[in-house]
Amino acid sequence: MERRQETDDGFKREEEENNKSCRTEGKKEDKEEEEKEEKKKKKKKKKKKKKKKKKKKKKKKKKKKKKKKKKKKKKKKKKKKKKKKKKKKKKKKKKKIFETSKEKPSPQPSPAYSTPHLTPHPNPLLIPLLPIPTLTPTLSSFPYFSSHPSPPSLSSPPYSTPHPTPHPNPLLTLIPHPQPSPQPSPQSLLPISTLSPTPHPFTLLPISTLTPTPHPFTLLPTTPYPKPP
């Protein structure tokens, strides 16, 4: 009886121990499983976070690209508009110039210098080279003589006095022109003693030897000098 009890006790103890070990083992397994699951969860969470971050970055990049493209497009449009405006302005200006040139009357042909230089010459330097028309000075052209009686000296033929009309080139008037010596009549000859002793500043030769040829620079027409009476 005692022996049976002992065995029963042993069995009980053994059973208890087994149960204990089973419990601890189960607990261990549960713990491991829990840890595993937690690890898995953490990993999943991390992955999700990474994915979200990546998506956000991608979205941001896309937005930036879109903005840049939009800006570029706007700039291009503005440039095109400016170019178009400039072209239009240029065209308008050209049209205006053309219209004004069209409105201008065609220049009328001027008379071929019938009167000495009534219209201004296009090139004033060429004036002395143009043929100067021979004009006989009339008393009406001088207001003083038109109201007064004509003096005997002016009634003589044209160019009896040196340059009755203004010289075309004033610089050439400074050069002395040799005067033709009129032959004196035997009655008008006076004795040498009565002649003025001061000679002319330009005449180095006696007046009688001077030739009646005109000066090489005179642009006035050479007309025959009046013969002595």
From TrEMBL:
It comes from the Eukaryota. Coiled coil: none annotated. Residues 39-96 have a biased composition (Basic residues). Residues 149-169 have a biased composition (Pro residues). Residues 1-30 have a biased composition (Basic and acidic residues). One of its GO terms (cellular component) is transcription factor TFIID complex. Residues 126-148, 186-222 have a biased composition (Low complexity). GO terms for molecular function: p53 binding. Residues 1-229 are annotated as: Disordered. One of its GO terms (biological process) is positive regulation of transcription by RNA polymerase II. This is Uncharacterized protein. It comes from Petrolisthes manimaculis.
